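tool_call: predict_structure(chain=1)
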Amino acid sequence: MAALGALVKKVWSIRSFLVLLCSPLVLLPILFSLPPKEGKCLYVILLMAFYWCTEALPLSVTALLPIILFPFLGVLPASKVCPQYFLETNFLFLSGLIMAAAIEEWNLHRRIALRILMFVGVQPARLILGMMLTTSFLSMWLSNTASTAMMLPIATAVLKSLFGERETSSRENEENQVSMQRNKLHTASTEMQLLTSVDENDLTEKKDVTIDVSSDLRKEEEYKTNIWKGFLISIPYSASIGGTATLTGTAPNLLLLGQLKSFFPECDVVNFGSWFVFAFPLMVLFLFFGWLWISFLYGCITLRRTKKSEIRADAEAKAELVIRDEYQKLGPIKFAEQAVFVLFCLFAILLFSRDPKFITGWASLFTPGFITDAVTGVTIVTILFFFPSERPSLKWWFDLKAPNTENKPLLSWRKAEESVPWNIILLLGGGFAMAKGCEESGLSIWIGGRLDPLENLPPPVAVILITVVIALFTEFASNTATIIIFLPVLAELAIHLKVHPLYLMIPGTIGCSFAFMLPVSTPPNSIAFASGHLMVKDMAKTGLLMNLMGVLLLSLAINTWAKSIFQLGTFPAWANIHLQNTSTSLLEDVQNFTLNSLSKS
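tool_result:
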């Protein structure tokens, strides 16, 4: 038995290597059961999906597999695969990451966060609202992981000022309390210590008071535990929600933009401005209902009116003092912070107003089609590398004794190189390469031909089903990998249902960010869970309703204001062109197959 246990441990220790070797062999039948080119492309996609889900290889390394497998299998030449890794969409994402690096370099994000917390107040429900608003705002521009990692220390400092140190998890606290009660040890207040001098004749009265005080202490401890959980769980959730509001907020949004240009080159309705007009109201609604749910579940909002105790009032005053002290430590705002803030505002405004669709944008002043979001983003972030970080002075030119020190720019390339997650850019490229392979090999057409049973499905029902399936799938897999796999299928399903492709692709894309139920679902969830104050059941209980709310709100948005923004009520001309090309390609395939059969006979 011991030998069997040792063998199992050895196999488990090399599980990644086994998955790496066995997956290609398990998937081999696909190469022989499908048409040659489509089968090879599907083989590569399923292999990558399997590696992404199991993380047998690093995600970014798996994203490089199309460069190897597509040319070797004859799906696409390298000259068509490699350019997919640095499309225009990648440069838009890169510009957002560089702007985020400058914000972090000068601690502007921390100043904004503390300022918002000072504004909302220090009552637990208000503080959770402040945390969620701040995290979601930062997540619109920074990565979800960076926003969570920055906000958690602030939340911890505030919680410690409210309730003191809390090193053990809630389960350990429960065990400690049981142990204390078993050994008749209670955390006694001053009044309880005085009661210990009472005569034995008053024993009954003393027992009653002990029970009452210990009950109060238990309730207070439970209240503290719940507040800790509410604070910590609200931060990763709001980071995931906030990332959906901008195109650069999270990788799946950019993958949608890139794959739209691959499948439907004539589609120009999605850009930074139009996406923001659609997604920002959805984010605000989701944040509001999510805040109500978290605050109610963890006791920050109650239906009963209770008088605030002096202990809680003192704790809230201490918390307010901690926030103000943290803000004071930042010192007066520096010239570099002001410059980065101005450039950040310019970055957001120019991206939004380039071509917002509901009004004429400033890009109309230039040659149509030449100025894109990527051009705008890269133009602004380039300024960061030469704009001075200290206020220029005219006196310096006339003061011959002034030191001739070189003025540092707002951002150095070394800092940008260290801060930018280049692995995400490779991951985006892998997604675009997969989409190109699906298009060129005819796999998307083959998948579309297998979707006939879904043609009678009402589109609103299809939206809900798609969002639910993707939200569940992304609980166990990377959101980027999930949307890479599903977007080609959703595009073909929309064509077969004769609905606007964005009507299905947008819910699928945003649904990828609704991963709230498990610690492993997203890096922000993992960071919050690693604090030691949350259990899996806490995330599952809270996240289940969050997922449900997300699905319903997304369905509401796509069937109301999104219809006017993206003209979802009609089947667009650019989708018709794709349908005609698909039919032509399918007819050519049938003709070639017939000719080959005749020549063999």
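agent: Confidence is low (pLDDT under 50) at residues 167-210, 585-601. Proceeding to next step.
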